[in-house]
Structures are given as structure tokens and as C-alpha cells.
Specification:
40% of the residues lie in helices and 18% in strands. The chain has a seven-stranded mixed β-sheet with strand order 4-3-2-5-6-9-7. Strands 1-8 form a two-stranded antiparallel sheet. Bound molecules: S-adenosylmethionine (SAM). The site of S-adenosylmethionine has 22 residues, from strand 1, helix 3 and strand 3.
Length: 285
């Protein structure tokens, strides 16, 4: 069954008595080549567990099932479950779970299904909650190998931005702590039903197995990034001293110690710079 075919999508949904739910960010793919490409790019080896978030009616799920050893798909919309039971019936390596991904105990879920295999995430993410889901995955403590997601094009630009560019933001600096993101390809809004307002892009994040730089105080590292980007137009010294209990003098000394100008803005600092800044502040409190 071609689960990207518009008449198939409509028939399955009518039979199940459901319609698209905007509040769940439901924009289903209607071009079969796209889930094929996403699944191809999701990981380099087949022997793995792939966690899919938001399978919808299963167009990407079936491509993942054909390529990878085990697929666990977490779908929030109860109305889609009877459809998935039908469309996934022929794939005995797929498990569908009716849950909100943000409420799933990820380490427990992975422990149950991974069987020691490497773990990847693959998803056409619901756009209303893209960044929280990415942060939930990254901060879960689960050792994901790759995270391949379709997201809004402008969020994709943020994830791959270089320090100093206008797209560089808090999410870029935090992401750089966990891994390296690469934009794979763009997908136009016309490839979905209903069509979203903006174009999308597929991004693959390769997570570090060993992080290249680890702050002594991770909470401070995060707080610094949050504070620095909350008031983007201010200098880092002004933005951080307004939010955190560090004097401007100490912050100027910290910037000098890591080779930065005291008037620098937060968007100029790389992840490594934030780690070094946090460490200086930890050591010189
Ligand atoms: N994978 C399908 C596709 O590519 O056509 C559907 C993708 S659609 C953009 C997003 C999917 O995520 C929907 O099926 C939606 O119901 C589901 N979803 C939304 N919020 C979710 C959440 N918090 N947890 C799990 N699934 C969610």
C-alpha cells in the first residue's frame, strides 16, 4: 500500500472516522520518495533500533521497517492507532506505542527494545514542538547514535549555523555539546497534506560518542547560554550579568581568559567557548 498516496491517506482516515488534527502538527507526506530518502539517510547500519516519533499512518515507519532491525513508533493521536495496526500488520519488527513522546521514559523504553543495538531516532517531527522534542532527546541521557528529523527549514538553518551568523542561537550552542548537525535536503511545503505554511528540511545529527568538551558544571553552562541569548542585542556581559549572579568585572575577565573581546555578543561564541567560559566562572567564583 502506498501510504503517501493522497486517496489512500483519505480513505484510511475516513474509514477510521478521523480528520487531520492541527493541534498535533499533522502534515502527512504525499511524495513517496521523501520517506525513502529519509530512511536511507537515517543510519549507516541495519542492525539497530530506530525510534520514530509521530508515525502518522506509517509512511516513514514502513520504510524504516524495511531497512532496520527494529522500529518503535510513538504516536500521540489515539485515532491513528487502528490505522497503524492495519498498515503495519505485515511488519513484525514494528511496535507502535500510543503516547506523548514528551511523557515517555526514554531510557526505560530503549532498555526494553534495544537489546544492546545502536539506537537512532528518525521522524517527520510535529512543528509545534520541534525544539522541545530535540532537547528532550538530547538531554534524556540515552546514547543515541544518530537523530534524523524533518523540521521547519528555518529551524534546520539554526541547527547547522556557525557561531557569529544570524541563524546561530541557543539551540545551536547547546546542540554543539551533543553532536554535529548536517542539513541533508529541503522539502517543499507542497509535499504534505495539509500543506504547512513553510518549507521543511531534513537534518541528521551525529551524536558524539565521546563529547569533545565537557563543562565542570553543566547547569551553569546551560544557564550561561540561556542568559546570553535571552537578550540577543546586548553584549554577553550585560545579558549574563542581568540574569546570573556574576559581576561585569568577573565576566570581562572570563572573556579575556578565553580570548574574547569584552564587548562580544553571545552569538559569537561557539559551544567550546561557552564550556570554557563556564569553567572559568566555576573556578573563579
Ligand atoms: N510520519 C508521518 C508523515 O511523515 O507523514 C506524520 C508526520 S506529522 C508531521 C507529525 C506526527 O506526530 C503526527 O502523526 C502527530 O499526531 C504526531 N505527534 C504530534 N505530537 C506528538 C507527541 N507529542 N508525541 C508523539 N507523537 C506526536
Amino acid at each position: 500500500m502506498d501510504l503517501c498516496n493522497l486517496s489512500v491517506i483519505k480513505r484510511l482516515m475516513t474509514e477510521a472516522g478521523i480528520t487531520f488534527r492541527k493541534e498535533f502538527g499533522q502534515n502527512f507526506l504525499t511524495n513517496r520518495m521523501i520517506p525513502e530518502d529519509i530512511a536511507d539517510n537515517c543510519a549507516d547500519t541495519a542492525e539497530r533500533l530506530v525510534l520514530e516519533i509521530g508515525p502518522g499512518i506509517g509512511c516513514l515507519t514502513q520504510e524504516l521497517a524495511l531497512r532496520y532491525k527494529r522500529v518503535v513508533a510513538v504516536e500521540i493521536d489515539r485515532g491513528l492507532i487502528p490505522i497503524l495496526e492495519k498498515t503495519m500488520a505485515e511488519y513484525d519488527n514494528v511496535t507502535v506505542i500510543n503516547e506523548d513522546i514528551m511523557k515517555v521514559d526514554l531510557p526505560a523504553l530503549i532498555e526494553k527494545y534495544a537489546d544492546g543495538m545502536p539506537i537512532s531516532v528518525c521522524a517527520n517531527l510535529p512543528y509545534y514542538i520541534t525544539t522541545p522534542i530535540l532537547m528532550y532527546l538530547l538531554e534524556s541521557g540515552v546514547k543515541f547514535d544518530t537523530v534524523t528529523v524533518m523540521i521547519q527549514n528555518e529551524v534546520a538553518a539554526r541547527l547547522v549555523a556557525k557561531a557569529g551568523s544570524s541563524d546561530y542561537g541557543a539551540i545551536t550552542a547547546v546542540l554543539g555539546y551533543y553532536g554535529r548537525a548536517k542539513r541533508l535536503f529541503k522539502v517543499s511545503a507542497g509535499c504534505f497534506v495539509p500543506a504547512p505554511k513553510v518549507d521543511s528540511a531534513v537534518v541528521r545529527i551525529d551524536l558524539y560518542s565521546e563529547k569533545p568538551y565537557v563543562p565542570k558544571d553543566e547547569a551553569l553552562f546551560r544557564a550561561l547560554i540561556r542568559a546570553a541569548f535571552e537578550m540577543r542585542r546586548k553584549t554577553l556581559v550585560n545579558a549574563v550579568s542581568a540574569k546570573l549572579p556574576f559581576s561585569k568585572e568577573l565576566l570581562c575577565a572570563a572573556l579575556k581568559a578565553i580570548g574574547q573581546d569584552e564587548n562580544v555578543r553571545g552569538e559569537r561564541l561557539s559551544t567550546e567557548d561557552y564550556v570554557r567560559l563556564a569553567d572559568y566562572l566555576t573556578e573563579n567564583k
